[in-house]
Amino acid sequence: MAKWQFTKGMHDLGNGCYAYLLPDGSWGWSNAGLIVDGDATLMVDTLFDLKLTAEMLETYRASIPAAKSIDVLVNTHADGDHTFGNQLVEGARIIGTQGTVTDFARFDPTVVQNICLNAEQFGSAGVFMRECFRPFDFSRITLTPPTETFSGTLDLMVGSKKVQLIEVGPSHSLGDALIYVPDDKVLYTGDILFTGGTPIAWYGPVNRWIDVCDRVLNMDVETIVAGHGPISTKDDVREMRDYLQHVSDEARPLWEQGMDYLEASYKIDLGKYRDREDAERVVVTVQTLFDDFADAPQRPVRAPIPYFAEMKGFRHHLGRGPVHEAYCKACGIEQGFRAREAK
After folding, report:
1. What CATH superfamily is the domain 9-342?
2. What are the TM regions of this chain, as residue ranges (predicted)?
3. What is the mean pLDDT of the chain?
């Protein structure tokens, strides 16, 4: 039996370290964390909408008196499922890498909300974005980026507890950071780690991401809070690193043959990774790998939204049902979207 159960809500990791998990870890269901010592608090990431973030804050405050006031919020990177609730952490210092600040508006919540409400107007990309993001409400969100940045490493004290912020982007995103609590051997990775699902390389270089995984494997860490999925160990980091290496090894000869990245995605043998959740993300990772292999003096900047049409096609190719299908059937989220549209 696993030491930690993959259940929604707060999990006490011991000695003032906490994780907040959102199963099943697929599109938008992300994790966050809290570090406490005495009256001092540092929160790791917020969630994908205001309702989820408010619920998380209420959960923290119901069990942890110090959480009534959050001193510091650290964003592991800029993706909305880790930042869209920032506005609710009032009065906190918000810290991230410069890459996170630069990347912050890449997914504008008003644009995502409009696409989800009017998906057909945006073609296959819009339909798949609605499928991925329909459990969430992007209304009333004000983008609230970090007001303090760091590069390399930054040591912070949470009470008498040392917390180290470690810049490791660009890899998954432009501005990735790890949050490390050395005395407790706890690491919060953001989307450097997807446990049980398929990672997506929005930026790369992928080889750098693999190197970051190796760096984590060499750290004195026992408990890892992934960006998505259950509370993890180094075995999960090793498995994800091996996935990234496998796709890299499969993609390189196809690039050398001059194949288009989308065609190459269908040619790659995913092997044991074919049945992982969100396997359609390989399309984005292969495009990023092809950019890596080209090694151009100036790396292309690619808009994320068009990829959703290609991922939709690939998911159909794999024979998968709709994203969040079971969840959405249970909660009637389609009706929820229509109700919000009518307001």
Report:
1. Ribonuclease Z/Hydroxyacylglutathione hydrolase-like (3.60.15.10)
2. none
3. 94
Alpha-carbon distance 262 to 181, whole Å? Answer: 40
> Is residue 212 scored above 60 in pLDDT?
yes
CA separation for the pair 123, 277 (Å, rounded): 24
Around Cβ 181, how many Cβ atoms within 10 Å? Answer: 24
pLDDT band for position 337 (cuts 50, 70, 90)? very low
Distances in Å between the alpha carbon of 179 and those of 163, 190, 232?
Answer: 7, 9, 15
- Reported as a pLDDT band with limits 50, 70 and 90, residue 190 is very high
The residue extents of the domains of the chain are: 9-342
Residue 200, SS3 per DSSP: coil
- Can you spell out the DSSP letters for 254-274? HHHTT--HHHHHHHS--GGGT
> For residues 92 and 90, what is the distance between their CA atoms, to the nearest angstrom?
6
**Confidence (pLDDT) at 1:** 44
Who contacts 3 (Cβ-Cβ below 8 Å, separation ≥6)?
Answer: 231
